[in-house]
Amino acid sequence: MFKRINRLHKGIIVLGLLLMLIFALTAFGQQAADYPNQPINLICGSGLGGGTDSMMRGIMPYFAQNIGGQVRAENMNGAHGLIAANAIFKAKPDGYTLYVMNNAYEIDIMMNKDQATTGLSSLSNFVPVASWLNADGNAFAVIKGSSVKTMEDLAALANTKTVTVALAGGIGSSDHITFLMASKIYGGKYQIVPYDSGGEAVAALLGKHVDCAVVSLSGDAVNPDQLDLIATTLENRVDSFPNAPTFKELGKPELSLSFHVGMMAPPGTPPEIIEKLDNALKKSFDDPAFQEWAKNTGKPIGEYYGHERWGEFLKNYTASLSNIMDVILEAVKAE
Questions:
Q1: Do residues 218 and 133 lie in contact, with contact meaning Cβ atoms separated by under 8 Å?
Q2: Nearest Cα to 147, choosing from 212, 99, 101?
């Protein structure tokens, strides 16, 4: 009799667990079906006017229309995206707090001193959503009309004095990587001045507080009426700066680097919500009005990467960083 009761008790427990599982799956399905029913917060890890911020705000109105809800933007800049990354990593995985970032943030995350307490060690800890800018690059910028016309001019100046260089994204950013690689090739004496955004770096250049700046081409502050670009990391010249040569043209193909802006979600975000976000971003990217905005503002957007392709790209990018991490770490120690 006791065995029969025990079997009955176990059966009730199993049935209860099955019902809980069914309820949880139903709740997840209902959550995805109702999504979004409150404002979505896009958190950018860099400041106003930079390439990442510009691409977030550029696609926002189309994304809001296609996702069918209110979308808000916030700049949580500092530590080149690390403050935002740590905050979003711990956010509720419900699709209402999303990370707008660029792939160069991986460097700072890999160097995160708080890994042991936060658990965040790589961009791969997040859930990839999509990327809508995959052909961005960096450029060496000078004030329009400057006597520095070429990279050779800049190197020559850096052999007569210490040249000050504003970095639009600060230490560990794509701008920093570009500067380190270029300065190693061209030589000279430099002092870097890190900023949290392209807007701040360009303001420093226009105010003549620095000699040149390394900036993202997609940044709002990169204005052909105010700046000359003496070299870019892109494969081809951009329409907004037709006289700016690429490093590839200059015989330095190793400096041909592209950077990507995309969206990530906190770990544990349901696949159904990721799918909805991806679909809404794809429709936004394909919207002729968004394409026209990108063309008119000189944004080298490239192709759209859905969540699977975006995740695969980031995985490969993280693996490739092993080739330059030693250089980055040495530069950080020297600061």
A1: yes
A2: 212
